[in-house]
Amino acid sequence: MYDFAIVGGGIVGLATGMTLSQRYPQARLLVIEKESQWAFHQTGNNSGVIHSGIYYRPGSFKAKFCYDGCASMVAFCREHGIAHEVCGKVIVATKENELSQLENLYQRGLANGLQVAKISREEVQEIEPHVQCLAGIRVFSTGIVSYRQVCQKYADLIRDRGGELLLNTKVEKITPTPEGQVLETNRGTFTTRFLINCGGLQSDRLAKLAKVDPQAQIVPFRGEYYELKPEKRYLVKTLIYPVPNPNFPFLGVHFTKMIDGSVHAGPNAVLSLKREGYKKTDFDLKDMAEIFSYPGFWKLAAKHANDGIQEIIRSFSKAAFVRSLQQLIPEVQADDLVPTHAGVRAQALKPNGQLVDDFLIVKDRNSIHVCNAPSPAATSSLEIGKAIASELGDLVSKS
């Protein structure tokens, strides 16, 4: 009998395990992951940004956890010698109609307690000489890191404190009992007093296996990236973002300096026909059927039809993708870019067609299910782990 079993070896699951191993050093802790390595899906394919929290609604979990998580992530990296850089970023308006949105974003940054500054076109170009814009915001606390390295350190600390870690272990059935949960996997059966579901792209399915209503369905969106050729990396010094479209739930294509020195451009956001589908040709019949039979998807598609079409065009047309990038850096040409990895975002969608815009954590009697944790979950992972540990503390005290 384990005290805590965590399903999902991405950054949220491992951060939660690390926090529990510290808070309950005598507890028997198990972390299981169906893949052959940690951070295989969302965590290992994201852009590696330590987000500031400027985009998120004041008072939301995302705003609070990201603000605190930005600081705690940097502190964690410093403590454990993980390569990172607090390089800051600029968000720029390239059209007149974006200036009011830029002002709104600046005010949101202030409301969220961030150090932000309005900067002129000339001041933007002092930071990023190749950017063309009308005005910008400088966000000082944004950083970059390899979240795969962060996850490996989380796993090492769990193991050092006596926790058990199992890869290649897929949960096939969950049976709630008065004493806890029974997990049947391809590698045997495990019994735990408390289950923590951090399954990311599979989180809603795991919740349903545990007889818990996830309150939403995961719809996967693939984000595709290009990479600047090494001889063109001089075009980007830090991170360069456009003003996000307030009517579209994604940030738009941008330039990201990576911790290894490379520069990625993207992502777009297109519906993936497979939950773990990283190629345009990937599809899964079950995943497609779930998407297309879900009323919320069609309501979302109708609302964002025009934006969705533009994202699809960018997916299949490099020229269209490049035109989007040229709004930020006109010098960028198609020959300067080569395709690189894609990522898949696990986005929870409500039946009414509304995207869940905050972290969604669903509690049951002896289980907790993280059912929406896209970006900025990596930045916020230590804070999400602390919050889950506190929730479990309440459940433990009642049991």
Describe this structure in words.
The chain contains 11 helices and 20 strands. With 399 residues, it is α+β, with helices and mostly antiparallel strands. Strands 5, 6, 7, 13, 14, 15, 16, 17 and 18 form a 9-stranded mixed β-sheet that branches. Strands 1, 2, 9, 10, 11, 12, 19 and 20 form an 8-stranded mixed β-sheet that branches. Helix 1 links the parallel strand 1 (2-7) and strand 2 (29-32). Helix 1 (11-23) packs parallel to helix 5, helix 1 (11-23) packs across helix 11 and helix 2 (61-80) packs across helix 11 (381-398). The two termini are 15 Å apart. The mean pLDDT is 96.
Keywords:
27% strand, 20 strands, globular, alpha+beta, 399 residues
Principal-axes shape call: globular
The number of helical segments is: 11
**Largest sheet composition:** 9 strands, mixed
Helix content: 25-40%
Class derived from helix and strand content: alpha+beta
Topology summary:
Elements: E1 2-7, H1 11-23, E2 29-32, E3 49-50, H2 61-80, E4 84-85, E5 89-93, H3 99-111, E6 116-120, H4 121-127, E7 135-139, E8 143-145, H5 147-160, E9 164-166, E10 171-177, E11 180-185, E12 188-197, H6 203-209, E13 217-228, E14 239-242, E15 254-257, E16 263-266, E17 270-271, H7 285-292, H8 295-303, H9 305-316, H10 318-326, E18 337-349, E19 360-364, E20 367-372, H11 381-398
Parallel strand pairs: 1-2, 1-12, 2-9, 5-14, 12-20
Antiparallel strand pairs: 3-8, 4-8, 5-7, 6-7, 10-11, 11-12, 13-16, 13-17, 13-18, 14-15, 15-16, 19-20
